[in-house]
Amino acid sequence: MTTAQIISGKQVSDEIRQNLKTEVEGLAAQGCVPGLAVVLVGEDPASQVYVRNKAKACEDLGFYSEVHRLDADTSQEDLLALVHKLNGQTDINGILVQLPLPEHIEEKAVINAISPEKDVDGFHPVNVGNLVIGDDSLLPCTPAGVIELIKHTGIEMSGKHAVVIGRSNIVGKPVSLLLQRENATVTMCHSRTANMKELTRQADILVVAVGRANFVDASYIKPGAVVIDVGINRLETGKLAGDVDFESASTVSGPITPVPGGVGPMTITMLMKNTLLAAKRAHGLS
Ligand SMILES: NC(=O)C1=CN([C@@H]2O[C@H](COP(=O)(O)OP(=O)(O)OC[C@H]3O[C@@H](n4cnc5c(N)ncnc54)[C@H](OP(=O)(O)O)[C@@H]3O)[C@@H](O)[C@H]2O)C=CC1
Ligand SMILES: Nc1nc(=O)c2c([nH]1)NC[C@@H]1CN(c3ccc(C(=O)N[C@@H](CCC(=O)O)C(=O)O)cc3)C=[N+]21
Fold this sequence. Notes:
The chain is an alpha/beta fold. Helices cover 41% and strands 14% of the residues. It has helices at residues 9-28, 45-61, 76-88, 107-113, 125-133, 141-152, 172-181, 196-200, 246-249, 263-282; strands at residues 35-41, 64-70, 94-97, 161-165, 185-189, 205-208, 226-229, 233-234, 240-241. Helix 1 (9-28) packs parallel to helix 10 and helix 6 crosses helix 7 (172-181). The protein is globular and about 50 Å long. The N and C termini lie far apart (47 Å). NADPH dihydro-nicotinamide-adenine-dinucleotide phosphate (NDP) is lined by residues 142, 165-168, 170-172, 189-193, 209-212, 230-233, 243, 263-264, 267. 5,10-Methenyltetrahydrofolate binds at residues 49-50, 53, 96-99, 121, 141, 232, 240, 259-261, 264-265, 267-268.
């Protein structure tokens, strides 16, 4: 039986979006309407859902938005030309190119082409560098959402032992940097980690981003620990599952996020927050 507190990403998201909406209304009066361009190459079914959710969030908040759907066989040259065009558009403050891209396109070339001021994913090397140094930057959306959710529990991160499973550039690595910024002591686990359960069982805060459905169960978790499940896995049944076996984990954990309704909605909310910030900076308002 679940006795753990469920951290609702949906609810936290709605609260933040309310605040963003109020701010957008104020900015519109000053002639500043945040604009987001989302670029989707090919028809990755998962990406379709996210792109739809992003467009809807823009509409709800009063942002201007453009969705560019390109054929799967679009050349890298044509994609780069679109990115350059969007870089020059004054009505666009944020550019997001949905990943993964088809194999014939070099991801790095595309990310590097996005103007760092418009890189609302926080994937451009300039923004990554600023994140590492601790300077102001556009923070990657999923990691920023993870930190917001932990803050929402009211549990202090400073001095706590945080363990992150996964070390990707888009989730694991930036999450670990943001946790350190909150003064947590951070341990990183990955596919070569030898004694993983020994480590995760010491975690006051456990962030899981492995990309394997129901990978973490109760046996990985210290009683009362905060558990944040970043995983989004589509099961054969069509259902969505996290990287954490919620039924099992929640019997021992403290506050824990569900999937769906956990980190996913926060990712989109942080994207909106970044786009608003980029718009304010473009208008000299921040
Ligand atoms: N909610 C959201 O908004 C988002 C959700 N996601 C989801 O988060 C999950 C992770 O995504 P992402 O970081 O891109 O995934 P990647 O596949 O890029 O990275 C997975 C990481 O997990 C590690 N790993 C894999 N298997 C094991 C294992 N058996 N034991 C320990 N570590 C392991 C890998 O280690 P190694 O480095 O050694 O290979 C790697 O570092 C996915 O389910 C993805 O769908 C992603 C982005 C946004
Ligand atoms: N350039 C780029 N930036 C990204 O941020 C990016 C990306 N590419 N590629 C794919 C991943 C994944 N991702 C998600 C966004 C929203 C939900 C989301 O809204 N999830 C909801 C429900 C989703 C559903 O029902 O399928 C939830 O978890 O409750 C999930 C995952 C962003 N990503």
